[in-house]
Amino acid sequence: MATTTATTTVLHCRDPLNERRADAHFAAEARQLRAAGGTVLLIDHDALLAGDAERAVARVPEGTGAVWYRGWMIPAGRYAALDAALRRRGGELVVTPEAYRRAHELPGWYETFAGLTPVSGWLPVGPGVVPDAEGLGALAAGLPPGAAVVKDYVKSRKHEWDEACYVPDLGDPAALHRVVARFVELQGEFLTGGVVLRAFEHFVIPQGSAAEVRVWWRDGVPRLVTAHPDSPVAEVPQAFEPALEPVRAAVEALGCPFVTTDLALRADGVWRVVEVGDGQVSDLHREADQVAFTSLLTADRALLRTPSPSGTTPA
Ligand SMILES: Nc1ncnc2c1ncn2[C@@H]1O[C@H](COP(=O)(O)OP(=O)(O)OP(=O)(O)O)[C@@H](O)[C@H]1O
Ligand SMILES: [Mg+2]
After folding, report:
1. Which of 76, 140, 194, 309 has its CA 20 to 30 A from that of 57?
2. What is the C-alpha end-to-end distance of the chain, expressed in Å?
């Protein structure tokens, strides 16, 4: 049985219209944390992203010690500024800025998951900058021939699949340039890190199941298995557990305390890691077990290291 401690403190984003309330998207999590004996503190996400970390933490009391963050995504640089602002008032983030960047951005986790995730390459570019033909050609040359997917270090434009995400044939430089240019244009100022190209793999949806399974790891232990938040279906396939064994080693090697891995079933029956994320900013499926989720943060760390016989703690 996991224990809860009154010392678990979580920084949530405040409601943009009410500085005393958690953002509606995280209100249920905040309620559940308080019910489990944890402490909710609020930060101003808008101020943080605008570059004013001091104002973002203005409502955080002095001397909090180590705290979790749970809210909207934060660019890695701004996350470091949040940590620095907390440190000036006797606090700090449990997940260090280095660990956050490692889990949040594809170049941070890619090597550790090589073999489990589609072959990928990237080119650092700033917002609005389309890599030149030479750069794109070199990127494409590093991938197997065929189709590819475009994204930045954190996000894709999957809802604009044909125009800004999917490249049908890497052997067609004009089409590659067109999709990448449209991606860069649509990402605008939010383009993070650079342009990533990933080999396209053919995924299938197990019958009656979510297309992607999001696994939540605490200190290298798969503690909660949910459908990807976009999935209309909340069910996760039975007999999924064996798929986690190779992923477990990679998560351990990554060395981040709270991460998610999104797994999809390839047409040949192999489970693949589509994406890794920092658990603090990974969205939770609306039908997921809130109590189990909260216990990911409140449970005693020592207990989490005890492997369960099946290898997976039931959600
Ligand atoms: N290499 C690939 N091969 C096939 N499909 C892919 C590949 N990469 C991504 N996809 C598809 O595109 C979707 C979006 O990709 P990804 O999860 O990397 O981007 P995202 O925008 O960060 O999404 P999320 O909402 O999960 O944060 C995936 O859910 C998957 O369906
Ligand atoms: Mg994804």
Report:
1. 194
2. 13
